[in-house]
Amino acid sequence: MKILAISDVPSKALWDYGTREHLEGIDLILSCGDLPQKYLEYLTNFTAAPILYVHGNHDGSYRENEPGGCICVDDSVYVWKGLRIMGLGGSIRYNNREDSFQYTEREMRRRVRKLWRKAHHVGGIDLLLTHSPAAGLNDSTDHAHKGFACFNDLMDEYEPQWFVHGHVHLNYDAKLPRVCTRGKTTVINATERYVFEIPDPDPVIQQYPFWKRWFDVK
User: How much is the pTM?
Assistant: First the structure.
């Protein structure tokens, strides 16, 4: 399965020229937010791959008109061809603007708790899709770009194979990696665009109840 992750900065390669060629062979597109509505809608004209997205902190305009032809997975556990995706958009709250997607740590934890039943119903999650990074994991020292501690808790509990986020542009810090790992999770900063491949999900694993892991004898 070939996945294109995008976030924050429209890619000139996709926006200005060669769009169809760059999207050839892509099975799924994941948007981590802060991208113009017209940009996402433009991409739908050149690919049959579904575009799943979460909101970025600057996507307040989406409240009036969500991107057409795309699927919002914010505050949901969305299963696509066996790939279980948990979507949690928005950033840490850094001002009092009500027209943006910003949350305190407590508010984000409340959103996470609401997804617990859905995640366990499908046997866990394979991919965590967010706008913000996790606290202490490629986030920044300024308050607006701090990550959420509860995302670390999610990785500890569900051990997703992939965590895809945006928000912290790679040009903010030359030391920021595009890809790193935390435990069993591969962490990807999707700023602008990044293509990666994953194995097709194992249908046997998808049908295995998540709660049974705690009682398995190894």
Answer: 0.91
Average predicted confidence (pLDDT) for the chain? 90
What residue type is assigned to position 79 of the chain?
V
Kindly report the number of other CB atoms within 10 A of residue 134's CB atom.
Answer: 23
Q: What angle do CA 156, 159, 164 make, to 5 degrees?
A: 100
Q: Kindly report the backbone phi and psi dihedral angles of residue 103, in degrees, each rounded to the nearest multiple of 5, phi listed first.
A: -140, 145
For the chain, how big is the Rg over CA atoms in Å? 17
Place of tokens 């491949």: 197
Angle, CA 185 vertex, CA 131 and CA 198 arms, to 5°: 90
What are the Cα distances from residue 213, in Å, to 12, 17, 96, 118? 45, 48, 42, 17
CA distance 89 to 137: 17
Burial of 76 (0-12, 13-18, 19+ CB in 10 A): middle
Element (H, E) at 166: none
Is residue 37 a contact partner of residue 62, using CB atoms and an 8 Å limit? yes
Pairwise CA distance, residues 165 & 132, whole Å: 6
- Copy the structure tokens of residue 157: 């509990």
Q: What pLDDT digit, counting tens, does each position of 159-190 carry?
A: 999 999 999 988 877 688 999 999 999 999 99
Return d(Cα 16, Cα 23) in angstroms, integer: 13
* Interval 85-120: pLDDT, tens: 999 999 999 988 776 799 999 999 999 999 999 999
